[in-house]
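User: Here's a chain of 281 residues. Predict its fold as tokens.
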Amino acid sequence: MRIHHLSCGSLCPHGGSLIGGEGGPLSRVHVVCHCLLIESSDGLVLVDTGFGSGDARNPAQLGQPFRATLSPRPRLEETALAQVGALGFDPADVRHIVATHLDPDHAGGLPDFPQADVHVFGPELEAALRPRLDERARYRRAHIAHGPHWVEHRSEAGGDRWFGFESVRILPRLDGAVALIPLIGHSRGHTGVAVRDGKRWLLHCGDAYFHHGQVETPPTCPPGLVVFQRLLVADHGARTANTERLRELAAAHGEEVALFCSHDPHELEREQAARPTAAAT
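Assistant: Prediction complete.
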């Protein structure tokens, strides 16, 4: 499979060096939305979508709390829809979307691919369709009003194992090369997505962590991101435990598995540099 690393959205929150950028706390930081486009035997596969064309045309649909906190900058040319076309593909060829979770900066592009099967963990789908009071701001009706073709994957005990992780769901139509890895915490159905890339695996960790230093040994993280992750969490204990498991995975199997999260520009640049043809997009 050929894999393209894309940024399908920009966030420009205040925070400067407190969240990994430069300058004082009022300086803006550029944050990416790291998505994957996979050329598979069963059509194109997107891992997350970033923002969609509807968000670019009407940013208000992202919701005021999200806009006030993260200062999103959705642009048409950054959407997965535009980038799929720029690579010479027909957007209708996107047959599968695999969602780490359904927050606006991860699922905003769902309406741009109405024909795609959308793979998601059951607890996340339940949260998006029937959000609790504390979840209503994070799941945007505009992103699912078109009625996506949901493919729900259960996360109960059982399933497969992957580098010590249990209850893994391998997607059979994709030659066993894409798997959902439970990483609950940031949201109640949050998942990582593992993709076979030749002799190694890629693990898209979504929002299981926010800064590359968190999966290094010893771990580090800018103080502002520590606070931010604590505020935007469904289960702090589970998120902390899963971040530690990811750090252990990186330490023990760093040559076999490349980890990256959704919003770290350093990690996006690293993966694009390893694939010059994708970086050009």
